[in-house]
């Protein structure tokens, strides 16, 4: 399945440390698009693993994670408004 993951981590109560952990975990499974947004192909099993890893760092009272799911990337239209960053261009 193809997913877009968006998160918002509060900066209170050790938020910067939580944000760093969440960022690193998401980067293991998905491609970093911008700020707190990731996307990519992921299996159901990998999505469950991602969720389990994030559980320890997400404060349910302060933080949020939203996952948009699609069967395939081709079923999603992607439009850029403003600056379009080519994050793939960083790979050698």
Number of beta-strand segments: 4
N-to-C terminal Cα separation, in Å?
A: 26 Å
Outline the biggest β-sheet.
4 strands, antiparallel
Low-confidence stretches: none
Query: What is the radius of gyration computed over CA atoms, rounded to a whole number of angstroms?
Result: 14 Å
What CATH architecture label applies? 2-Layer Sandwich
Question: Secondary-structure element order, as H and E?
Answer: EHEEHE
How many H/I helices? 2
* Rounded mean pLDDT score: 86
Tell me the name of the CATH class: Alpha Beta
How many domains? 1
**Residues in β-strands, percent:** 25-35%
Q: Globular, elongated, flat, extended or rod-shaped: what is the shape?
A: globular
Task: Name the strands of the widest sheet in spatial order.
Answer: 2-3-1-4
Report on the structure:
The longest helix is centred in the N-terminal third of the chain and has 15 residues, at 15-29. The chain has a four-stranded antiparallel sheet, covered by helices on one side. With 92 residues, the protein is an alpha+beta fold. Helix 1 (15-29) packs antiparallel against helix 2. The model has no long low-confidence stretch (mean pLDDT 86). It has one domain (2-72): Alpha-Beta Plaits (2-Layer Sandwich). A hairpin with a 2-residue loop joins strand 2 (31-34) and strand 3 (37-41). The two termini are 26 Å apart. It is built from two helices and four strands; from the N terminus they run E-H-E-E-H-E.
């Amino acid at each position: 399945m193809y997913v877009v993951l968006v998160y918002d981590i509060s900066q209170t109560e050790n938020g910067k440390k939580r944000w760093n952990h969440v960022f690193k975990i998401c980067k293991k499974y998905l491609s970093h698009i911008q700020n707190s947004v990731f996307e990519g192909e992921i299996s159901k099993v990998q999505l469950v693993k991602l969720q389990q890893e994030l559980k320890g760092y997400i404060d349910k009272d302060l933080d949020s994670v939203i996952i948009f799911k699609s069967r395939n990337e081709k079923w999603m239209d992607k439009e850029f408004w403003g600056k379009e960053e080519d994050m793939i261009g960083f790979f050698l």
